[in-house]
Amino acid sequence: MSDLLADWVDRDVEPERAVRKAAVRESLDELARRAPGRSVEVRVPPFGAVQCVEGPRHTRGTPPNVVEADPRTWIALAIGRLSWADAVAAGRVSASGSRAGEIASFLPLRTP
Predict the structure, then answer these.
(1) 3-state SS, one letter per residue, for the chain
(2) Cα–Cα distance between 103 and 10 in angstroms, integer?
(3) Which candidate, 3, 27, 31, 72, has a CA 20 to 30 Å from the CA of 104?
(4) Quick one: 111 exposed, middle or buried, by C-beta within 10 A (0-12, 13-18, 19+)?
(5) In this prediction, what percent of the chain has a pLDDT beyond 90?
(6) CATH architecture of 3-106
């Protein structure tokens, strides 16, 4: 894990935009690799979104299962500094749809 990301999550020392963007995109790609499918859309604006988790495929309009988080929250989840339950309870993650919470079983993507 990059010290820059740990500092961002733990101390709110924000790295350059390019570093934040790369970290979010790489972690979303890893999630899609670990949880292939198209039943849940995970959005981390403004840096990226992926569809993942096996099940019915969504093709038009707003997906029924959506997870959305800001980049810092997403990285905290991805590196294990924040639990899914805590993020949802604190309103740091928006999870809509009956299957959105399934991504919790794939987190963290890296150990802290």
Answers:
(1) CCHHHHHHHHHCCCCCHHHHHHHHHHHHHHHHHHCCCCCEEEEECCCEEEEECCCCCCCCCCCCCEEEECHHHHHHHHCCCCCHHHHHHCCCEEEECCCHHHHHHHCCCCCC
(2) 23
(3) 3
(4) exposed
(5) 74
(6) 2-Layer Sandwich (3.30)
Average pLDDT, the chain: 90
Strand-strand pairing, 66-69 and 40-44? parallel
Single-letter amino acid, residue 19: V
Label residue 1 by pLDDT band (50, 70, 90).
Answer: very low
Task: Spell out the domain ranges in the chain.
Answer: 3-106
